Amino acid sequence: MDFEIQLCTEDQRKKKVADSELAFGTQFTDHMFLMKYKDEKWGTPCVIPYQSFQLDPACAVLHYSQEIFEGMKAFPHPDGSINLFRPFENAARFNLSAERMCMPQVNEDLFVKAILELIKVDKDWVPHSPETALYIRPTMIATEKFLGLRASSEFYFYVILSPVGPFFKEGFKPTKAYVASQNVRATPGGTGEAKTGGNYAATLHETCIAKSKGYPQVIWLDAIHRQFVEEASAMNIMFIIDDEIYTPPLEGTILKGITRKSVLELAQNLGYTVHEERIKIDTIVDQINKGQCTEAFFVGTAASITPIGHIFHKDEDHIVNNFNVGKITQHLYDELVGIQTGIIDDRFNWTYRID
Ligand SMILES: *Cc1c(COP(=O)(O)O)cnc(C)c1O
User: Fold this and answer.
1) To test the ligand 1 pocket, which listed residue (255, 260, 333) has its Cβ within 8 A of the most ligand atoms?
2) How many Å lie between the centroid of ligand 1 and the Cα of residue 302?
3) Distance from the alpha carbon of residue 234 to the mean position of ligand 1, in angstroms
4) Which of 74, 148, 151, 289 has the smallest CB count inside 10 Å?
């Protein structure tokens, strides 16, 4: 499909922030991708200057949250090329989310091509310092103007780019997590597996409580037993017990993380035993206290691997590995980030080069 490309004028160009000043998701590049859906078909794929939308106040996304998104990163490689990490996995997941939210499918080659064409135009925006990357946010919103509750017949599919610094300003250091005691994130039969806005809005209430107590992250439990560990608000979770890796299975309420999948594949390749099985929070904190569970960490695109140093559960703090980064966590982090940034040879063929 032919892309229409409309470049910024000189005075539309934004000032770039120095790599050292980059935060997460506050700075956006000069261009964006936009394609509109109407009359049961997608229109022309366009790269246009980054701009605001004019949306009718009655449009569907603003009332009933018919919205999906993806999160991925492009990394500069030492040879000067820019590389995506498993972009077709994001394209496939975007379509799974679209199906669940009753939104149209986007051709997966077109999804990846939209990102490639956009990054080519904005390639000067890819930061080059260690731990920086270009964060990519493909999004689809329901734009039809009506207040009835039914699926919209009009949509925007758009992609914006944000040069980002380290997700956690403190760097690769253990974080503190608070086990949700009031709310749940997802329910069986619900939308937990879809990357759709409402799931994240649902996490804000208890996350505010956790943050006010000094815990940046919430660990969500299953909705039925309030006992099985699911994941964080936007990251999956793993534990190391007796030097083996444990993570909850994907049973519909947990987002199918591409980092999760990659870490499991990588770990097996490195000779670790991995288990995808249900994990009770009471059991895990007991194993932490007895020294059997020696490491815990979150996995996701935004922060790759984040060690967990404290788990707050039932009014008690449980300290993991003395608040130090564990050796298996470090090993997996070095391998994953090494492959993503081109420092380690990509034996899995995960990186996708932008020429
Ligand atoms: C995006 C997301 C993840 C991580 O997925 P990645 O593909 O690894 O970035 C995990 N959990 C939730 C709820 C998410 O939204």
Assistant:
1) 255
2) 9
3) 5
4) 148
Which DSSP category does 162 fall into?
E
CB of residue 259 inside a 6 A radius of ligand 1: yes
Give the atom of ligand 1 at the shortest distance from the alpha carbon of 300. Answer: 8
Residue 331: burial class (beta carbons within 10 Å; 0-12, 13-18, 19+): middle
Give the residue whose CA is nearest to atom 1 of ligand 1. Answer: 234
- Tell me how far apart the alpha carbons of residues 309 and 219 are, in angstroms, rounded to a whole number: 13
pLDDT single digits (tens) 124-144: 999 988 889 999 999 999 999
Tokens representing 42? Answer: 């997608």
Note the pTM of the prediction, 2 decimals: 0.96
Asked whether 235 lines ligand 1 (CB < 6 A), one says yes
What does R_g of the chain's alpha carbons equal in angstroms? 21
Tell me if 175 CB under 6 Å of ligand 1: no
Query: Domains in the chain, please, with CATH?
Result: 4-164 (3.30.470.10), 175-340 (3.20.10.10)
Within 10 angstroms of residue 204's Cβ, the number of other Cβ atoms is 13
pLDDT digits (tens, 9 = 90+) for 167-198: 666 778 899 999 999 999 999 999 999 999 99
